[in-house]
């Protein structure tokens, strides 16, 4: 007997005049999400857990764009897995967190820019991240050692005497612009696909405000009831949400420190290095400490998480990103504490190596999940304000 998918594609081809089918062919992982969503749509026990299930109830079928949308709405909190009566070992084998995580990882690669670099998502693991950071740091160490300024050089606590400000801007500026452009291109393609599948209505201020609140509070890591999600077992905990907050706001504080320092340098003419209690230093130290706490906590949770609640294939990419964030913050704090010691040049090389590796992997690593998830939350906030197309009294 011919499969339903084959018949569907043939019908689409006939409807379009015998030409190419207008319905995208789902991958195996996408089809699995569609199968599980059909079961969940009939059950609806988890309807109040997160944004995925209210969005699911607005659909009777799940196409390519719908599945990508729901996968990026999922925060992988695990609440639905532990509540599900059809979870493994049931023959239905419903495991929404894992199925969504597998498709979510696929979307990062599918929407990568340039497309030829999408495969880097599969190769960007812990070993590669650490090797890249170590290799870049070693290159800088050798370059400085050849000049005879690696240890005990008279830098007067100012690392710009070793690497001038304009040289660092020339190294990191183009990479930063590429990161912004590559991520922007990817998420714009994602948005164009999602918009027709989520009513097509334009973004408005109330929807943007609600989505921003969900992002800034990490609303959907509370399990839908405020007491948290699951990690190693079926016990509720807020640890994952709190460590995400430390990491998220630590990163923002470090970025704010860089922005303020740029303003000081180019607008006010106040040149680094800055000391406490200057604003760049206050923001940088607070952000660095917060990043170290958050990434250390997320590392432990990732290593001990229940195996059914995630996609094992993505664990190296997750750990690689966590490790680079930790190394960047730890080396930055060590550089500040060691600014008056003979180790300043060595610490600077280690820090720059970690920062360079982080920048190089940002467009093709776990950092992308925050960008894509924000876009999905924005579309959800728009869609939920419209009448339910499959509810009672719907057209």
UniProtKB/TrEMBL annotation:
Keywords carried by this UniProt record: Membrane, Transmembrane, Transmembrane helix
Transmembrane segments: 126-146, 166-187, 246-267, 279-299, 319-337, 343-364
Superkingdom, taxonomy of origin: Bacteria
Coiled-coil region: none
InterPro entries: Citrate_utilization_prot_B, NarG-like_sf
UniProt-listed NCBIfam families: CitB, PRK15033.1
Name used for this protein in its record: Tricarballylate utilization 4Fe-4S protein TcuB
Species per Swiss-Prot/TrEMBL record: Variovorax ureilyticus
Lineage of the organism: Bacteria, Pseudomonadati, Pseudomonadota, Betaproteobacteria, Burkholderiales
């Amino acid at each position: 007997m011919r499969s339903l998918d084959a018949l569907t594609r043939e019908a689409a081809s006939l409807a379009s005049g015998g030409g190419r089918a207008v319905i995208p062919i789902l991958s195996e992982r996408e089809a699995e999400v569609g199968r599980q969503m059909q079961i969940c749509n009939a059950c609806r026990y988890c309807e109040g857990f997160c944004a995925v299930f209210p969005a699911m109830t607005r659909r009777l079928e799940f196409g390519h764009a719908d599945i990508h949308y729901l996968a990026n709405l999922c925060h992988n909190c695990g609440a639905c897995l532990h509540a599900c009566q059809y979870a493994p070992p049931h023959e239905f084998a419903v495991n929404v967190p894992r199925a969504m995580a597998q498709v979510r990882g696929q979307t990062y690669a599918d929407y990568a820019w340039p497309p030829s670099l999408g495969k880097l998502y599969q190769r960007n693991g812990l070993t590669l991240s650490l090797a890249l950071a170590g290799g870049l740091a070693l290159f800088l160490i050798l370059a400085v050692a050849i000049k005879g300024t690696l240890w005990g050089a008279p830098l007067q606590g100012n690392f710009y005497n070793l690497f001038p400000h304009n040289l660092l801007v020339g190294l990191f500026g183009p990479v930063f612009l590429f990161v912004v452009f590559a991520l922007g291109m990817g998420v714009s393609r994602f948005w164009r696909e999602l918009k027709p599948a989520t009513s097509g209505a334009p973004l408005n201020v109330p929807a943007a405000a609600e989505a921003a609140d969900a992002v800034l509070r990490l609303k959907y890591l509370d399990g839908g009831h405020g007491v948290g999600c699951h990690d190693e077992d079926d016990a509720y905990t807020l640890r994952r949400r709190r460590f995400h907050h430390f990491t998220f706001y630590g990163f923002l504080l470090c970025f704010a420190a860089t922005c303020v320092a740029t303003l000081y340098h180019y607008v006010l003419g106040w040149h680094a290095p800055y000391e406490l209690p200057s604003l760049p230093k206050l923001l940088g130290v607070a952000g660095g400490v917060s990043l170290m706490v958050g990434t250390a906590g997320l590392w432990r949770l990732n290593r001990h998480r229940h195996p059914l609640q995630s996609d094992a294939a993505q664990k190296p990419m997750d750990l690689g990103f966590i490790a680079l964030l930790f190394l960047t913050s730890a080396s930055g704090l060590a550089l500040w504490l060691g600014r008056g010691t003979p180790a300043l040049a060595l610490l600077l090389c280690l820090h720059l190596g970690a920062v360079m590796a982080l920048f190089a992997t940002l467009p093709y690593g776990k950092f992308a999940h925050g960008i894509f998830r924000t876009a999905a939350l924005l579309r959800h906030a728009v869609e939920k304000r419209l009448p339910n197309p499959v509810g009672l009294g719907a057209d």
